Structures are given as structure tokens and as C-alpha cells.
Amino acid sequence: MKLLRFLLFPFAVVYDFITTIRNWFFTIGVLKSTEFDIPVIAVGNLSVGGTGKTPQIEYLIRLLKNDYKIAVLSRGYKRKTKGFQLINDAHTAEDVGDEPLQFYKKYKNEITVAVDANRVNGISQLLKLKEKPDVVLLDDAYQHRKVKAKSYILLTKYNDLYVDDFLLPTGNLRESKRGVKRAELVVVTKCPPNLSKNQQKEIEKKLQLKSYQQLFFSTISYDERLHGSLKFTINELKNKQVLLVTGIANPNPLLEFLKIKEVQFTHLKFPDHHNFTSEDILKINTTFQEIELEDKLMLTTEKDFMRLKNKINELSYISIESVFLNNEEAFKTAIFNIIN
């Protein structure tokens, strides 16, 4: 794979040229960016997948929902529907995508969630609602230049910083590292909980952010109580045999967490945002039945649960939250200043 990516280097150079020209055209106004009268905050990354956008969006929802009418707009990756969809109870993950459905299921009585690949149209439709939002959170929209957001939050993963990466297809970057300059807030995600101040300073030196940019560090916190069909605690899993089913970009942090908690598990790994077929469900059920220990449980992630809950009867999931290592109040102040 590494050799293949190296051989594709000329295509990465072409890709860099195309994305750079596109960004420049948006900057000088050749390509149109639409700005709205309400605050629009775009959350995204420079690389493909796995940087923790979903828990970061949920953090912003919890931060803002008591003071503002919040709408979350996503494209609805891998959904089967087209155009603008205002999510309701009848929608499934196949209709609107797993992450938007997750936002809706968790906060449906407190926020509005919609999907539209055309973000300009999506925001326009949200503003036509009787209960129109005060703030729009754009999920995975850092490269969506047709909307000019009030602010951009860039996420970069601790063990895969954008400065250490290269453009597609040689690396995993969607655009050049120069794209970081659009962000006001940069969050290094999925850090070790014990990341020291000195280690943080080393990363800060490495990123070389501009004076107008603020840097923060966050980690992932796993809920100690399971949700779904069987609501055990993590500690109660020590005496069970667990079948772990994942379809996320990077399941390794979850695997490490379960190992630390001394959970015995078998792992079935599927691609990110995988649409589980009847053959996949048969494989999952067969693998579960083959576990000889009678005291067993099937476990998945919250995002995967959105795609599996109507296909597997007894299924539990573990939820996660984004937690700042320090300077959380500074992050909150920055967000409220952006909105106000």
C-alpha cells in the first residue's frame, strides 16, 4: 500500500494544483461564497475521516442549545435520499446518514437536524422554517467553500497531525496544509488524557499557527454505562464474552479502552460508514452464535448502532464525548464571542 501511494505521487501534485486554484478562486471572488445573516460555524478537518467531528459537534450542541436555537446541517454521507431532508422520527440511517441521525436521536427535542449536499440550499431551507435557527453548525464542511462560515473549527488527530501528512492519493489530506489558515480555532483531538503541558507546547511549535488562531487539546471520554438493548456498565463486561462490531474509520482507541478495562472481546471490523447487508448481518449473527460462553453480549459504537439497530435484535452501544484537557473556558468564550 505504501509503495502504491508513493507511485501515485504525481497525481497528488495535480490534486494539489487543482485544490489550490479552487481555493484561490473562492478567495478572490471568481467562485461565489454565500454568507448568511446568522452565525454559521463549520467543523471539519484537512484529512479524510477519523478526527472526531461527531463528538465535537455534540460538544457544541450541549454548549449552545440552552441559549440558542441550534440547527445542525450535514450532507448525510452515503444516504439514499437526495436534496434537503429535515430529519424526523420516520427517517433511518439509510435515509439521512448515521451521524445526522445520531444527532437527531440524542437531541431531537432541543435542536433541528437536516441534511443537504448543497449547504447553501440547506441553510436557506432552514431559515424558511417557522422556528428558524439562531446558529447553524455545519458538520464536515471545512472544504465546502460555497458557504462562507462565520468561523471555522479545524480538527487534527493527535497521532496523525496534518503537518505530518500529504495530499491524496499519496497521503490523506483533502487539501494543502495551507488550508489551516481559514480556521480560527484548531483542536488537536484524541489526545492521551495525560498529555503534558510540555508535550502540548511541542505540538504547538510544530503546527506554527498564526497569531489570530487559538489551539486546544481534547481527548475522547467513553461512557461507563452501555446503551441500547442491554444496559450494563463497562466493569460488568469483565465476566462476559463480547462481540464488538465496528464500521468506523479508526476503532483502535475503542479497542485500547476495552483492553484497559479487561474486557474479553472478538472484533468484527467493517469500513467506515458501512451499509450492512443481509450477508453482513448473517456473518455477525453467526460469529455471535459461535461464541461458546453463554454469558455474552454484542457491542457496537453509537454511530454504528444507528445503522444496525433495525437489523439486530439485542445490541448495545458505547457512547463517547469530547473532553478538553485544559483551557475549556477559553474555548467556550471563543465560541460565544463568534456568535455574539
Please tell me about this protein's structure.
The protein is of the alpha/beta class. The protein has 2 domains: 2-68 and 134-221 and 323-339, Rossmann fold (3-Layer(aba) Sandwich); 227-318, Rossmann fold (3-Layer(aba) Sandwich). It is 33% helix and 21% strand. It has helices at 2-7, 9-28, 53-64, 93-96, 98-107, 119-126, 197-207, 252-260, 278-289, 302-308, 328-339, and strands spanning 40-45, 70-74, 85-86, 111-115, 135-139, 151-157, 185-189, 214-222, 227-228, 241-246, 264-269, 296-301, 316-318, 320-324. The strands form 2 sheets. It has a 9-stranded mixed sheet with strand order 3-4-2-5-1-6-7-8-14, sandwiched between helices. The termini are far apart. The model has no long low-confidence stretch (mean pLDDT 95).
Secondary structure elements and pairings:
Blueprint lengths: L1 H6 L1 H20 L11 E6 L7 H12 L5 E5 L10 E2 L6 H4 L1 H10 L3 E5 L3 H8 L8 E5 L11 E7 L27 E5 L7 H11 L6 E9 L4 E2 L12 E6 L5 H9 L3 E6 L8 H12 L6 E6 H7 L7 E3 L1 E5 L3 H12 L1
Parallel strand pairs: 1-5, 1-6, 2-4, 2-5, 6-7, 7-8, 10-11, 10-12, 12-13
Antiparallel strand pairs: 3-4, 8-14, 9-13
Helix pairs in contact: 5-10
